[in-house]
Specification:
Elements: E1 2-4, E2 15-16, H1 18-23, H2 25-31, H3 33-44, E3 47-52, E4 55-60, H4 67-71, E5 77-78, H5 87-90, H6 100-114, H7 116-119, H8 123-135, E6 140-144, H9 145-162, H10 164-169, H11 171-182, H12 187-191, H13 198-224, H14 231-237, H15 248-279, H16 281-298, H17 304-308, H18 311-323, E7 330-334, E8 338-341, E9 347-350, E10 355-358, H19 360-363, H20 387-390, H21 409-426, E11 427-431, E12 438-439, E13 446-447, E14 452-457
Parallel strand pairs: 2-3, 4-10
Antiparallel strand pairs: 1-8, 3-4, 5-7, 6-14, 7-10, 8-9, 11-14, 12-13
Helix pairs in contact: 2-3, 8-9, 8-21, 9-15, 11-13, 13-15, 14-15, 15-18, 15-21, 16-18
Bound molecules: protoporphyrin IX containing FE.
Amino acid sequence: RVTSDPGCTRPPPPMVNIIALLKLLPTLCTKGPEVTMTYLYNRFGSVFTTSFLWKRISFLVGPEVSSLFFQGSESEVSQGNMFEFTVPMFGPENGFAVDYSTRIQEIHFFIDALRPSQLRSHVDPMLREVEDYFAKWGEEGVVDLKDELNQILMLIASRCLLGNEVREKLFGEIYTLFSGIEEGVNLVSFMLPYFPVPANHRRDKARIRLTEIVYDIMRSRKTYGRVEQDVLQKLMDSRYKDGRRTTEAAVAGMIIALIFAGKHTSSNVSTWTGACLLTHTKFLDVVVEEQREIMRKYKDKIDYNVLSKMETLHSSIKEAGRMHPATLGLIRQTQKNITVRTKEGTEYGIPKGDTLVNLVMLTSKLSHIYKDPEVYDPYRFRPGREEDKVGGRFSYAIFGGGSHVCPGEAYAFLQIKIIWSHLLRNFELKLTSPFPKTDWSKFMLEPKGKVLVNYKRRHLESN
Ligand code: HEM
């Protein structure tokens, strides 16, 4: 439990001093941040603080200490100015460039555009992209799964988020421009987003060109009265609470932000799903059998309802996400003194101005929530076990939680399930490279190196 505490009357959390931190450097370098943070959690408990240069950082582990982090009001715990580096990536009229109230309304536009009832219309375009993409694979061969999934997900994003105009004519350019936007994700740009280094220059150039492309599409739709089914259209048609229409610049920024938010996250979880299933044949057999069963009932038809029957596949993706989240932790800043109560009942006061890091990766591995947390076991989410629910709210925080929970979760599952059901039905797959390690050098964590998979075409028989 976490509450606000104006006088900060409670004792501070255990402090990890500079000597303890220095002693951990070799562990950090050789074993990585997860092992280091797990050591600190085991030693100091679910709340602890460190100082780094002039900054105090308080770490939180577990659902018991996470409620205010996720659900607190902006005046208690906020995203602060930590995402300012995204302003030159997404433009000056949306996201972290605008006031909080406008930003929240934009997030509601995302939620509306990506809610399950809206997603039904995306199934067919997603399926078409997936079928066309994998039709280009040969009879058999070896591919880098990470690269392949990255490409197919970008094709889907072009079609379903940006729309047919981009997908049909401009995909190559968009793909390159997005790589340019992503140049803005590095340590220098994070600390000094406007510093004139080449990466920032390439980021700015890419955003300007991408914005022009989106403007052209919007203007052409308006001129010819064309209305599409994609998310871009939903954002164009959205209105703020006071009745104002979204501006062209805001829509362009929002759509770039959405693609960015969904791109690596989805490609990572789908790649980890593959790596996990191909090394756990027990579950691979179960998901293949699930496809057979569904084919017996629905033949080759795939629609929103059929996808919702793929429960073990869904759990297999969710479990891959639990074991390999895209981030070690989520970040906020305290705007008031707050109190955190641990599951043992100890209360700590965290002062206004602390950076909070919620270590969702460690929460996913807590043994009082997840049985044998290091074991890949999609069955842990089945009725009767449902370990994430039994563990309490925020036990599964791979998609965040509360006021800033990921609005793209249902969309992400939809596209990953469409890809994996197609792969399972049409290919025999074998992981030929070793099980990937996590690449800690990336801002958004991903499987390290190539994930090589040997494929052989097949047509799954339902009987
Ligand atoms: C498996 C895939 C995904 C994962 C693991 C994931 C994870 C997350 C997480 C952890 C957050 C919360 C960040 C925080 O609290 O600071 C978040 C926010 C967000 N996600 Fe996702 N995401 C995924 C896919 C997507 C997709 C496909 C989209 C869009 C189509 C999307 C759009 C967003 C947006 C716009 C936010 C910001 C919400 C806000 O600030 O209120 N995500 N995502």
